[in-house]
Design goal:
The protein has 348 residues and is an alpha/beta fold. The protein folds into 2 domains: 16-144, NAD(P)-binding Rossmann-like Domain (Rossmann fold), CATH 3.40.50.720; 150-249 and 251-283 and 329-336, 2-Layer Sandwich (Dihydrodipicolinate Reductase, domain 2). Helices cover 32% and strands 22% of the residues. It has 11 helices and 14 strands. The chain has helices spanning 9-12, 34-43, 59-69, 78-82, 99-108, 123-136, 150-161, 176-187, 264-267, 298-310, 321-337; strands at 25-30, 49-55, 73-75, 89-92, 112-116, 140-143, 167-174, 193-200, 206-212, 216-222, 233-237, 241-244, 253-257, 275-279. The strands form 2 sheets. It has an 8-stranded mixed sheet, covered by helices on one side.
Length: 348
């Protein structure tokens, strides 16, 4: 069944106005790769978004991208694009190791920034980026798009309502960033990390058990490609359970189980818990051939950014600086304990 109408967090908190998805922002794109392509196509669902410019390592690549996807101008030099008065906000879609450099260039040019995850390679780097944005009075938004999906916003609201009781366990499979964000979604940023046990190699299969204060645990599994992994997130509370269905990092369906008594089978003569399934289909107006799963959902994050900037809010409450730093602390701690993978060639 269709899920109940979900009010995005920025609107729910009274920070923004729904109609401000029409607030005009001219976007500059750094990087002409596949993720930038999917971002640009998704942006067409936002009435206020104009794809004004793209910069890549070569002018030829930038022109090809601009011609293919209806971007206004092409640059073979990032600094030239950032000097343009036709760019208000920049999407950083370059490889991870370039995120800090490219974000800081845009920030120092006075542009708002949406940086693709992972935001930075360390907490120190991320703090430097946020501090620079604060000095310039511009937005730096960490691109953890999961938090903007209506299914995830609904799950968050159910958790905060107390309907599933106190969350005691999170189980998720995918990669360290997406599974760790599932834990922080459920436990909140205030949950202090007590212990972390890690197994597996960098860039390969493995897992971790996170222990947070008040006896809260997360069992996170890092999958291997290729394999037919489930990619489902279970958020278990003392009164009920929420399932973010496949693909859990960008879900359009959640299942909610709240039995009369928990645990349902043990307290109810082996009868399963009643459940409700809620669907939040993606917009049919976005055409995106050969996309990653549910990549059209970029539009939820883009809409929120337009609303927030229109109201002079320089972070989106769905995933603000505190949440970004908290997640990065956990991901960096996990990666530091994963064994080097001899199959991954180290860059000089």
């Amino acid at each position: 069944m269709s899920g109940p109408a979900v009010t995005p967090r920025d609107i729910l908190l009274g920070l923004t106005n729904p109609e401000d998805v029409r607030f005009p922002l001219r976007w500059g794109i750094i990087g002409g790769g596949e993720i930038s392509r999917q971002f640009v196509l998704s942006s067409r669902a936002c009435p206020g978004a104009t794809m004004s410019a793209v910069a890549s390592r070569s002018l030829e690549t930038a022109k090809s991208f601009a011609d293919s996807y209806g971007v206004g101008s092409a640059y073979g030099n990032i600094e030239d694009m950032l000097a343009s008065d036709d760019v208000d906000i920049v999407y950083v879609g370059t490889p991870d190791e370039m995120h800090k450099q490219h974000s800081l260039l845009a920030i120092e040019a006075g542009k708002h920034v949406l940086c693709e995850k992972i935001l930075a390679k360390s907490v120190v780097d991320a703090e430097e980026m946020y501090d620079a944005a604060n000095r310039q009075g511009v937005m730096l938004q960490d691109g953890v798009w999961t938090r903007f999906f209506p299914a995830v916003e609904q799950a968050k609201q159910i958790i905060e309502s107390g309907d599933i009781g106190e969350v005691v366990m999170v189980q998720a499979d995918f990669d360290p960033l997406y599974t760790a964000q599932a834990a922080t979604l459920a436990f909140g940023t205030e949950a202090k990390l007590i212990d972390l046990r890690v197994s597996g190699m960098q860039g390969g299969p493995g897992g971790t058990i996170l222990e947070s204060e008040n006896d809260r645990y997360a069992n996170l599994t890092f999958i291997r490609f290729p394999s037919e992994f489930p990619e489902v997130t279970e958020i278990t509370g003392t009164k009920g359970r929420i399932t973010l269905e496949q693909p859990a990092h960008c879900p359009t369906r959640i299942t909610v189980r709240i039995p009369p008594q928990a645990p349902s089978r043990y307290a109810g003569a082996n009868n399963p818990s009643p459940f409700q399934v809620f669907d939040y289909p993606l917009s049919s107006s976005i055409e995106m051939p050969h996309a990653y799963p549910n990549q059209e959902g970029f539009s939820y994050m883009i809409d929120a950014i337009h609303r927030c900037i229109a109201s002079d809010h320089l972070e989106c409450p769905q995933f603000d600086r505190e949440a970004s730093i908290h997640l990065l602390e956990i991901v960096c701690a996990i990666n530091a304990k994963r064994k080097p993978n001899p199959k991954i060639r180290m860059k000089k």
